[in-house]
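Quick log. Single chain, no ligands specified.
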Amino acid sequence: VQFVESGGGLVQAGGSLRLSCSASGFAFGVYDMAWYRQAPGQERELVSSISRTGGSTTYIDSVKGRFTISRDNAKKMLLLQMNSLKPEDTAVYYCYGHRGVGYWGQGTQVTVSL
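-> predicted structure:
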């Protein structure tokens, strides 16, 4: 099982980024997926999750209306569209998949400047 994130970078406040997580080595469609983030000196937190079919999603309050999680099971991809970014969104973002056992990607840095 392997996840590789991409799409992070430096963006000004109010800008947008789209994170991608490419999966390999397993049947992606049977895994519930999520995006987590970890800011310096803080604990890793769940940002958004999506069910195996994509029919159910969750978001933390601070990103509701700004972030959208989606998945393409045929392409084995997990996406996070992030709009209206704020400096407090600055963190390393991690892809996470679980089906009993959980697996993490290596993370991608998102930095939002004023």
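The mean pLDDT is 96.
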